[in-house]
Sequence to fold (276 residues):
Amino acid sequence: MLSADSMVKGADMNIFRHEMKSNRKSLLIWSISMALLVISGMGKYTAYTAGGDSNDIFDKMPHTIKALFGFASFDVKTLGGFYAFLFTYIAMTLAIHAVLLGNSIVAKEERDKTTEFLMVKPVSRRTILTAKFLSAGINLLILNAVTLVSSLLIAASYDGGNEITGIIIWLLISMLILQVVFLSFGTLLASIKKKTKATGSIASGIFIAAYFIAKITDLTDRLNFLNILSPFKYFSYPEIIEGKGLNIFIVILTLLLSIFLILGTYKFYTKRDLTV
Fold:
């Protein structure tokens, strides 16, 4: 297993700084986008819960429609339920960022024809990959933190906002774990595939498939066995809303999955032929 200390010691700081600098503009754009998503999304809470016809519309919607829009299990007329509804879209955005980032940190030198930058370094590929993972992990933490702070600040502007602080924190913790899973999927895919230009599309396809499976299992309990194929279904958001926190067993299994994917990335990346 890879500890944080071993990753820091095993990383090349020049490559790490290069990765942080190359992702700086992208991270800024994603961070602003996430803050705006949270602010604009929560801004609709008052309109959706104003009473009268809007409440009747939510009550009369069939389960199928509620499931497709992501609030079949939540009471969107409450602040916590509405944030959980918005969180399904937050999770989608953070997940697609993570899988594309994972794909990019492995494939971008070959894709951009800058492999020489790595090949002239007197360091091993394992050291290079460790620096890339460390940089990507910090990117995930920053984007997740921006989303968390934005969510807490906008929620605090509503009556009862402080009451859902715990819910928001647990939801974003669960999402951070899933970000690592999606990042790992992206890196493993890029390290296996020889045609790096195609890996971005494939990584996006994996994300879409995972989200599609999550929606299918929301529609019917008969297909719940498919949940293992979708990280979006690893954690029970209704249980988090109820104040039960995260299932520690699922957390451990999810982290083990991430470690397995990361180790797979190291295995394939250190053996692949890098094209100049």
Remarks:
- Residues 4-269 form one domain.
- The chain has a mean pLDDT of 81.
- The CA atoms of residues 75 and 81 lie 5 Å apart.
